[in-house]
Design brief:
The chain has 444 residues and is of the alpha/beta class. The chain is built from 18 helices and twelve strands.
Length: 444
């Protein structure tokens, strides 16, 4: 028998299937995304291996890579270590890992157990600093979710690895695009890099760069940090305080011609790039993007015109998708469910970004919710023709919303393979339309 809405509050302390892992998961994903890094988990055996399915595979069926999952070194703490401590086990793990697994950077990621029993992980790690580049990220699961783990990873990098460098003119770092939590992180970083290079900007993307340690060490040389979600703001603020690097905040990555053009003009003004250079790139890119959009004209106008739609996604993805679907495709936003549990001080701004600047008479209802069952019940209150969400909402769209059209665009996504796909930029909007409209455009 299906639960009724009034039954949901019987156990308010229980959250069903939130869209993130613990802080360890976020730091672990960031370490794996830094090419050449060897993560070492000071934790129980299940802490890391569970991330294989819960974090990496949920990121569009991705593998965690050659040093992820079952191949990640782990201290595998058990009851004995809870009683007598796990420092010796960690010491042996670091020693054997450096001997057996060549890497550019060793990243020790400690979990709940070491934090609770008081292991002096910093002291153990310090013993090996003369043997290899090594840092320690403190990620007890109770300190926050995956997004917090992403912030803690950069805290450790800034405090333990980085040193001051001369500033490089027009060099920028890209922050706030969280590996795995953003399904399209690999493609998004590369597209933004390619786009900015067209206007003469040098870009340090850090994650997925084949020289991961060099990319990390180059962070202080940037003239400007570009932040594409609220989760990059603490890191940008810390870098500003430590290395006097200014930052520019964008609530989401730019999707489609309109927002991408606004993005480039803002960057041009901030970095004092000639308007002629900026406008030349804009004209060329817009012309190509809109020319190719013409090929989708029939299916857009005839297949699903002015669709009433809903979004279930993290704040950054929700903002980017909602703005593009409304302002460029002409769809009508009914409801947006924000799932990354943003801090209270950011929520008013998120609501503004989801309701203001939309070329629609309809403004979406914005709800902050992490509980998957409550999200399911909430969506049942709306008549939607289209749902843009995670793969957990696929059944809801197809069985409970009258066979609404569905596309997974947010974490977790177990129903599509995403390698370097991206919805960012001028061509990104075309990619989004291809993925969406191929699902209903045929005659059969």
């Amino acid at each position: 028998m299906a639960l009724k809405k009034e039954d949901v509050e019987l156990f308010p302390e229980v959250v069903e299937a939130p869209r993130y892992s613990c802080a360890l998961g976020g730091a672990y994903a960031a370490a794996l995304a830094t090419f050449g890094t060897i993560p070492l988990l000071h934790s129980g055996g299940g802490c890391g291996f569970a991330q294989n399915a819960g974090q990496s595979f949920a990121d569009g069926l991705n593998s965690p890579g050659p040093v992820g999952g079952a191949t990640t070194p782990c201290s595998t703490l058990v009851e004995e270590h809870v009683i007598f401590g796990g420092e010796n086990k960690l010491r042996e793990l670091i020693d054997s890992t450096i001997k057996l697994m060549p890497g550019d950077l060793y990243t020790v990621i400690s979990s709940c157990v070491p934090a609770l029993i008081g292991d002096d992980v910093d002291a153990v790690v310090a013993e090996f600093k003369d043997r290899a580049p090594i840092i320690h990220v403190k990620t007890a699961g109770f300190v926050g979710n995956s997004y917090k783990g992403y912030e803690l990873y950069f805290d450790a990098v800034i405090d333990q690895l980085l040193t001051s460098l001369p500033k490089e003119n027009r060099l920028v770092n890209l922050l706030g695009i969280v590996p795995t939590q953003n399904l399209f992180w690999k493609g998004d970083l590369q597209v933004i890099k390619n786009l900015l290079e067209k206007v003469g900007v040098k870009v340090n993307i850090i994650f997925s760069d084949l020289k991961g340690l060099e990319a990390l060490k180059r962070i202080p040389a940037a003239e400007l940090n570009l932040v594409f979600s609220l989760w990059g703001i603490p890191t940008a603020e810390k870098l500003e305080k430590r290395f006097e690097t200014a930052y520019e905040y964008f609530p989401s990555v730019p999707i489609g011609p309109k927002d991408t053009t606004a993005f480039l003009r803002r960057i041009g003004k901030k970095l004092k790039i000639s308007s002629k250079v900026i406008e030349r790139v804009i004209e060329e890119e817009e012309q190509n993007a809109y020319r190719f959009t013409e090929y989708i004209g029939n299916i857009l106008v005839i297949g699903l015109p002015h669709a009433y739609y809903g979004v279930v996604a993290d704040s950054s993805t929700a903002i980017g998708i909602t703005r593009y679907a409304t302002n460029e495709l002409g769809f009508n936003p009914e409801v947006v469910v924000v799932t990354d549990d943003p801090p209270e001080e950011y929520r008013e701004g998120i609501v503004r970004n989801l309701t203001e600047g939309l070329e629609s008479a309809i403004k979406p209802k914005v709800v902050f919710e992490v509980d998957s069952h409550k999200i399911r019940l909430l969506l049942g209150d709306y008549t939607l023709q289209l749902l843009l969400a995670s793969s957990m909402e696929r059944y809801v769209a197809e069985k409970e919303l009258g066979e609404a059209l569905f596309l997974s665009v947010s974490f977790p996504s177990y129903d599509r393979l995403i390698v370097d796909r991206s919805y960012v930029g001028y061509r990104g909007g075309l990619n989004f339309m291809e993925d969406l409209m191929a699902r209903y455009g045929g005659p059969l």
